[in-house]
């Protein structure tokens, strides 16, 4: 796993894992919806479940731990990892406690909720999460500073245009 992370990069593995999980969740939904019409859809659902787990173990399972450790300097790193761990376990607990109720409520469309959330996570990671492979903390912090400065510059440019129009 570590060799794969170092070779492919954290961000690309994370995005590939999220997209694979998204496709698997859609396949599980299709399999469950069409199960009453086609008996072989149970195999589609089983394969989708296995692929979901595989993609999780390649991307969203381990990669956030790498990224969190690399996004923070030595001082705040333990607190950041503690918050990330708490969020991870809290979300796992919530899904575990609520899944049966949601499945009873949504029926075969229960995994469509996961697909929607995975799409949101994918888009967030695509636009906001930087690649941290081979970069020092200072280089990663500089990426965030550039994004913050460019957003500030865009706001100032829009304000200037509005004042010129008035």
UniProtKB/TrEMBL annotation:
BP-aspect Gene Ontology terms: D-glucose import; dehydroascorbic acid transport
SUPFAM superfamilies, sorted: MFS general substrate transporter
Signal peptide: none
Pfam families noted in UniProt: Sugar_tr
Highest taxon above the source species: Eukaryota
Membrane spanning stretches: 12-34, 40-58, 79-103, 109-127
Keywords for this protein: Membrane, Transmembrane, Transmembrane helix
Name listed for the protein in its UniProt record: GTR2 protein
Species name: Sinosuthora webbiana
Organism phylogeny: Eukaryota, Metazoa, Chordata, Craniata, Vertebrata
Name of the gene encoding the protein in the UniProt record: Slc2a2
């Amino acid at each position: 796993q570590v060799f794969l992370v170092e070779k492919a990069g954290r961000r690309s593995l994370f995005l590939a894992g999220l997209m694979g999980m998204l496709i698997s969740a859609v396949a599980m939904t299709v399999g469950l919806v069409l199960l009453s019409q086609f008996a072989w859809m149970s195999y589609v659902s089983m394969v989708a479940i296995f692929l979901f787990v595989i993609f999780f173990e390649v991307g969203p399972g381990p990669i956030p731990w790498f990224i969190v450790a690399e996004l923070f300097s030595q001082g705040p790193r333990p607190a950041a990892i503690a918050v990330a761990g708490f969020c991870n376990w809290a979300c796992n607990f919530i899904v575990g406690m609520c899944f049966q109720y949601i499945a009873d409520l949504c029926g075969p469309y229960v995994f469509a909720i996961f697909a929607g959330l995975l799409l949101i996570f994918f888009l967030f990671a695509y636009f906001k999460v930087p690649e941290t492979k081979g970069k020092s903390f200072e280089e990663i912090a500089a990426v965030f500073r550039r994004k913050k400065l460019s957003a500030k510059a865009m706001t100032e440019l829009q304000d200037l245009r509005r004042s010129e129009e008035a």
